[in-house]
Amino acid sequence: MSLIHETSILEWQAAMTAGTTTSRELTLAFLQRIATYNKQGIRINAICELNPDALAIAESLDRERTLSGSRGPLHGIPVLIKDNIATSDKMHTTAGALALADSFASADAFVVSKLRQAGAVLLGKTNLTEWANFISNDMPDGYSSRGGQVLNPYGPGVLDVGGSSSGSAAAIAAGFAVVAVGTETSGSILHPAEQNSLVGIKPTVGLISRSGIIPISHSQDTAGPLARTVTDAAILLSALTGIDENDPVTGKSEGLAHTDYLPFLDADGLRGARIGVVRSRFLAECESEEIALYEAAIEKLKEAGATVIDAVTIPSENAEWDIHVLLHEFKVGVNAYLKTLPASYPIRSLQDVIAFNRAHGEQALLYGQELLEESEQTSGTLTEPEYLANRLFDLEMSQKQGLDAVMKEHELDALLYPGSTGYAIPAKAGYPSITVPAGYTSSGKPFGITLTGLAFQEPTLLRLAYAYEQATRLRVAPNMTKA
């Protein structure tokens, strides 16, 4: 078996089934690794809180395995979750905000209940860019007032860690757990996945429930997996799907979601696939070495049997997008979430958060809070003509005149972007994307490629990503001994 921090879910399951290890031993090993590197050594600072019941949960799952067998691939597997996802246990749920530092959620998020049902060991909460990077335009990736700065294991203090699921990504890259759950509104899974040389899946909006997740936008929010391999990401995605009566958007997934995505993984899955290469303004965001890595990835897709259409243009890619939709929806969503906290908790609204931050400005407002304040100025009713016009514009330009148009014109299975540059249009469309490691620059900076499809085309994206991963096997673990 490979090193503990690089071992896959299926390898761990085989070892636990064979009796050569246990969930307890696995959990202890990850706790030791967190002790070594999270707050000392290179101080990744990806974990903001550990579950005091983690070891007990692991032991109970070991006993259950002995008595009645395994629940499935996640049985006994330590999993980390982003600290904007509610847990009704002894851990706080804070979104990285000091205003919520002492708050406990009233109930598990739907995705947390699904993880518990699957037999996962909830190891702890990961740090993040505060409020999922919706507090200030100047907030650094990976920083929160509660948790401090997350560092990238591939270049601590030098390389951008990505945001806002920075802690989830850095933790998995550093080997603090097997897999982690992040959330994305626009780039918050895909970007840190690339920066930390991971596989990240931003699912179709509606595939995974958002109930119990501190929100930004009901139009764009979703949870999703971060993992070291496509297989591990597929296993975690399988556990998270399901229709939730408390999140009506999941009704869209009826008959389209799967509870097992492993059958779609095919090492020969690129053969006959039609992939549209996106260049234009997206390449302008890349360094010369990254462009060379992108070209190498395109050649590998061709070698693996894909038909590559180079280059395609998304008709709406130069549209003038803005964040008005997010500003309006944030207030509605956050106020609704805060109302679910125990009645004794004093922070009940976005207005309360803003006031708390002002009263504790030296700690809470190192980078300001202009996005919170702009959002508070909206009505909270979603009736403004500006909001409605922008929401309709986003849908029309991202879907009908955007991704739908280019996919239909070229009969594509997926679009290919360099790095994580292409996250914004799929985010507004609510369409899925997957990022896969695609090498490193001479300085050791990770680079990835992103594949995007239409709604609920996760099986296709997983097939293509897996085939590329198996044909290249480019991911290398970070050197954790660097000072």
TrEMBL record:
<dbReference type="InterPro" id="IPR023631">
    <property type="entry name" value="Amidase_dom"/>
</dbReference>
<dbReference type="InterPro" id="IPR036928">
    <property type="entry name" value="AS_sf"/>
</dbReference>
<protein>
    <submittedName>
        <fullName>Amidase</fullName>
        <ecNumber>3.5.1.4</ecNumber>
    </submittedName>
</protein>
<dbReference type="Pfam" id="PF01425">
    <property type="entry name" value="Amidase"/>
</dbReference>
<keyword id="KW-0378">Hydrolase</keyword>
<dbReference type="GO" id="GO:0004040">
    <property type="term" value="F:amidase activity"/>
</dbReference>
<feature type="domain" description="Amidase">
    <location>
        <begin position="25"/>
        <end position="462"/>
    </location>
</feature>
